[in-house]
Write a structure and sequence with these properties.
The protein is mostly helical. It contains 15 helices and 3 strands. The chain has a 3-stranded antiparallel sheet, covered by helices on one side. The longest helix is centred in the last third of the chain and has 34 residues, at 264-297.
């Protein structure tokens, strides 16, 4: 047992634990800021702490589980995932206009967060099984079927941010698997055309407004541009060292909306300053580099593509979340991995990192 523990990727684990600890440290004073947490309600902090413990347990459990098991049950996982995405449309709890949560009493479960892991498994299995013929264009269309089905269900919630993560993961795995570059260029062109179509016939008015405020946030400072303006003010006011935990005016006085979820990066920037931001970015960069390194050194194609897909999920969420905090990406409701409040996201993130650890340990056992 001790020998197995020593074979873990301690750099990946340490970076994840540091981010978890920082998340809890930032959430605790937010829980006492009033308004969004009526009566100094600390339930968000304690819930996140509980989910952190559950996440660490899942991380360790998946770390010591043979990752190849997921390849054999990928079809069953996909069916369960599709069922949950459909169920949330029927029984889902509506939060901020999105029916993305299934309520179990005091706990709200967000199926799409778990589905991000499921689609990574499904894509990794498909492309690893067809590695010899992967340059044939038919694999693009075949692999697109489960992605299109899941994205259609996700958009019905509607959840544009998560849909973009799923599509981005598919595109990233295509690139990792070795599909011809000209096919990828054709996909980019098709994506642009689809974007134009979606703008006119798919996107809701509020989703269009979130995109438009990127050009001019001050055009609607009390509406669609409010979140972006308050977030950029928070980020810019932190200075070098920040105002101190619990002393950020934007976050503690509740000018900053969704400060515990979508805009926790802005809270960190305001309260811990440039040094805190650099610390977070370094830890996120370390995790990404370790994931890509594990993928590169994997002993089989399934492990390589699975961890690669996990890294892509992380990368997209990091870029979009930080982008919307500093006003260069639309507000898409995408959490910042390991930092944003949310049990479903945290548990799914820890599970993905645990699977990456399993692939790492598998490679170490083979190569000593």
């Amino acid at each position: 047992m001790v020998k197995n523990i020593l074979k873990m990727d301690w750099i990946l684990l340490a970076a994840a634990l540091l981010l978890l600890g920082l998340s809890l440290a930032v959430l605790y004073p937010i829980s006492h800021s009033g308004n969004n947490f009526v009566g100094n309600d600390t339930s968000h902090f304690f819930r996140q702490a509980i989910f952190a413990v559950i996440g660490i347990f899942l991380f360790l459990a998946f770390s010591f589980t043979d990752y190849r098991i997921f390849r054999s049950v990928s079809s069953a996982l996909f069916l369960v995932g599709i069922f949950l995405l459909f169920a949330v449309l029927v029984f889902g709890k509506i939060v901020n206009g999105t029916s993305g949560w299934i309520s179990f009493g005091v706990v709200n479960f967000q199926p799409v967060e778990i589905f991000k892991l499921i689609i990574a498994v499904v894509l990794a299995k498909y492309f690893s099984l067809n590695v010899k013929t992967i340059r044939e264009p038919r694999h693009i269309f075949i692999s697109l079927v489960p992605v299109a089905l899941s994205v259609a269900l996700i958009m019905l919630q509607p959840d544009l941010g998560s849909a973009l993560v799923i599509v981005g993961t598919w595109a990233g795995v295509l690139l990792l698997s070795g599909v011809k570059k000209r096919y990828l260029i054709a996909l980019v062109i098709a994506g642009l055309l689809l974007g134009i179509f979606s703008w006119h016939f798919v996107l809701k008015d509020y989703q269009k407004q979130r995109i438009m405020v990127l050009v001019s946030p001050t055009s609607d400072p009390h509406g669609a541009g409010y979140n972006v303006l308050q977030s950029t003010v928070a980020v810019g006011s932190g200075g070098v060292w920040g105002k101190g935990l619990g002393h950020g005016s934007q976050s503690q006085l509740n000018f900053l909306p969704e400060k515990h979820t979508d805009f926790i990066f802005a809270v960190i920037a305001e309260e811990l300053g440039f040094t805190g931001v650099v610390f977070v970015l370094i830890l996120l960069f370390v995790i990404l580099m370790r994931l890509f390194s594990i993928a590169r050194e994997s002993r089989d194609n399934f492990g390589k593509l699975l961890v690669g897909a996990v890294a892509i999920v992380f990368f997209i969420q990091i870029i979009v979340n930080i982008g919307m905090n500093i006003g260069i990406a639309p507000v898409a409701g995408i959490p910042l991995p390991l930092l944003s409040y949310g049990g479903s996201s945290l548990v799914a993130t820890c599970a993905m990192l645990g699977i990456a650890e399993s692939v790492y340990r598998g490679s170490r056992q083979r190569y000593g």
